[in-house]
Protein 1
Amino acid sequence: ITITNHIQGSAKESDFELKVVPLRLSVEPGSSAVILKNLWVSIDPYQLNRMKRYSSSHKTVQPAVRITPGQPIDSPGVARVLVSDDPEFVKDDLVEGFVHWGEYTVVKGGMLRKLDPEIDLPLSYHAGVLGMSGLTAYAGLFEICKAKKGDKVFVSAACGSVGNLVGQYAKLSGCYVVGCAGSRDKVALLKEKLGFDDAFNYKEETDLNSALARYFPDGIDIYFDNVGGEMLEAAVANMNTCGRVAACGAIAEYSEGAKRAAPNMVDVIYKRIKIQGFLAIDHMSLHSDFLSTTTDYIHNGKIKVQEDISSGVESIPSAFIGLFRGDNIGKKIVKIADE
Ligand code: NDP
């Protein structure tokens, strides 16, 4: 799957194209190249920032990470090695890393990590809860926000891939947790299955500021922000002194022309609020901690894994576009091939 053009406004099906190109099942000696059969592909909102049209003066998303129309789109995923020129990998190894939105990937071996055969859990988990989404939740909550017992935590897009894990980790750490999501079914899931103390449908609220005041009469200590925009503004207005905000994502602001909002900076200063942006990839030092803790939690039934699965390469564009409509419940992944 490629983009046909740089995306303007919201992503739509016509922005994508399924291309069929021949694949040579051999690698140049000395190239360190590995050919992978893709099994699971992670579908993530941040890809829109790589696909968008930018003016030449734009500095935030570097040209090197932008997606070029007609070129493969790489994303986290799980795959099986078919051919390898990298001595670290042999045929049939199972790996995670950046794979293409397609059936096969050709990549340098250095970009891949072998899956730990000791982890006896579904392979798809490595594209979500044990992959980048899980690490994002773990790093944002514990490293950026220093969550501790008794903290009052608010998380947006709480039924999404990152958000549901933030809430579950926070509950396991003894925090009081409220999430917001975009439908009644999602709210019910958060409260009844995932153990959130409370949850609300932000689409049914006319005034986000007073909604948060209702759910947090004693103020918010930590806001894990997945959406940006007006929700960030309202959360900051309800934060306690020395509150922490993990600026993880701003999905409400990703589409060109989206409405933007900003927190009241006088509030930020007088309440000594720390707002910190972060990227999970900068927190790989936590990876082994994160993996062993999360694997144990899953085995003990303390973390409930939420996956939302589509099948086949051709389903990738609609899976991606659906993230921006809130179609997904939990981690959106596409199954590309049988394991
Ligand atoms: P999700 O699985 O949560 O999917 C996106 C969800 O966001 C949707 O299901 C929808 O749920 C909600 N949403 C969509 N549009 C809006 C909107 N306009 N306003 C409010 N909510 C909206 O995605 P992820 O969990 O994978 O990612 C969550 C955030 O974290 C994203 O912003 C992403 O870019 C970011 N991220 C950041 C990383 C980092 O390293 N900093 C790494 C990974 C992700 P609903 O029904 O509730 O509206």
Protein 2
Amino acid sequence: MVSFKVSVVSTSPIDGQKPGTSGLRKKVKVFKQPNYLENFVQATFNALTPEKVKGATLVVSGDGRYYSEEAIQIIIKLAAANGVRRVWVGQNGLLSTPAVSAVIRERVGDDGSKATGAFILTASHNPGGPTEDFGIKYNMENGGPAPESITDKIYENTKTIKEYPIAKDLPSVDISVVGKSSFEGPEGKFDVEVFDSADDYVKLMKSIFDFETIKKLLSSPKFSFCYDAMHGVAGAYAHRIFVKELGAQENSLLNCTPKEDFGGGHPDPNLTYAKELVERMGLGKTDSGGEPPEFGAAADGDADRNMILGKRFFVTPSDSVAIIAANAVAAIPYFSSGLKGVARSMPTSAALDVVAKNLGLKFFEVPTGWKFFGNLMDAGMCSVCGEESFGTGSDHIREKDGIWAVLAWLSILAHKNKQSLEGSANLVTVEDIVRQHWATYGRHYYTRYDYENVDAAAAKELMGLLVKLQSSLPEVNKLVKGLHPEVANVASADEFEYKDPVDGSVSKHQGIRYLFEDGSRLVFRLSGTGSEGATIRLYIEQYEKDASKTGRESKDALSPLVDVALKLSKMQEFTGRSAPTVIT
Ligand code: G6P
Ligand code: ZN
């Protein structure tokens, strides 16, 4: 057995290592600075209780972006030196974020070991490559992101760190081959185990969904399917699940080979960045020729996000979670005994609220960030949740789950088409399901405008103005009526604040809200996930109960409110932008 020694390297604090909404995300060149990654990882070890380090089992993997392999080898050497007992690595360093969560919760090593945490190497939907982003975040033993109490400690530790131990002479482990490598260190045995990236996750999906029913849908000549992994880690699961297990055609997979630069693209599943899928689904600017598939979906770099499309039809993420919640009990075996509750993030439309009310379900509105759902789920208060930012999931893990969302939609389609798949009736399409939902529950017209990489000071000023205006609503309403008399009055305005019903913690300043008398909303917030400058997000929502008016083009329906939002916030004045970077 190869043995290793531990040496202690002296270091000094590096500025700016404060983890954001989802870990530390910076340009690769920042991460490559001497001691940068080492400091952060050691600061994390020092923030954990000793039993989560000494003798512990840790998962280390990610979305396979540029610098991942180097980072994994460094983390292995640091883990060995800190007395970690074993490190589990997905083959080729690949594990989707939801799969990491599943591995922490479900995987049992051959000696009965269980993981107590994970370093996930991803910057999610941000581009990858030598000049793009890298990221690292720590997840806890429940499979969810570390809570603020831990990330605050990590940050404090990065400001005082003086040294870290490292097993410099530990040979690099070949992470492309499944198997175990064992070493002997000053504190005893240390193993690195490389395992199949998909096994544990596929097993979990099979325990949630009825694969046989979905298979009937996917193999029916009436149905067609397309999945775009955007060259992210979802590709490591798509072939196995959709083709091998569920019988989809090989050619229904787009960009399903994981690449360290995501093929030069921006791996964010929305109508702007998922261009190829959007074209194929008949929603592009040009007609791609041929009949689009019945169903299309895409994932982001680390496969926790999803976009759901029907033939020439876009499902907003806010509608998607509402529709999944409304159909879960009937269509998905995991939920057959009922939902414990449902939840959405504040900027997500209120479509889910209406479902919760009609079905008598517990309902929660939380700030942006998946960790808030995790607390509710750990307490058994929430089964299904989702966000406008293309995140949907359930209490099967503690991260949002892109492939789960696709399987949920396929289950609903299979359920609604039980008869039509056997007989000659027409297929119930994605569009049919959504329109039927609107007819039952009303429709929340919804759009989001993103202004990316704007000057941070200007963004702060804009937000400041919007807070100030909240104390003079009569003036605001004068402006609203002057612009668009048909828009309702602003009834109230505030900054969203959340008191966690489980641990009592309070999160303030979670977004600026203008709430209109007819239920419409304008929400403004600054993104917590960018790596450069500031990103302003503007969320616009309008509720229509009248079933005869739920079929309008979203753009037309929302145009007066959009105009009000832009003028009220002086968007162009502050940002110098006449149009947003992305509209979703
Ligand atoms: C990540 C988090 C989500 C959050 C999203 C948007 O994906 O996991 O919970 O909704 O970022 O965050 P942002 O702060 O950029 O709007
Ligand atoms: Zn992601």
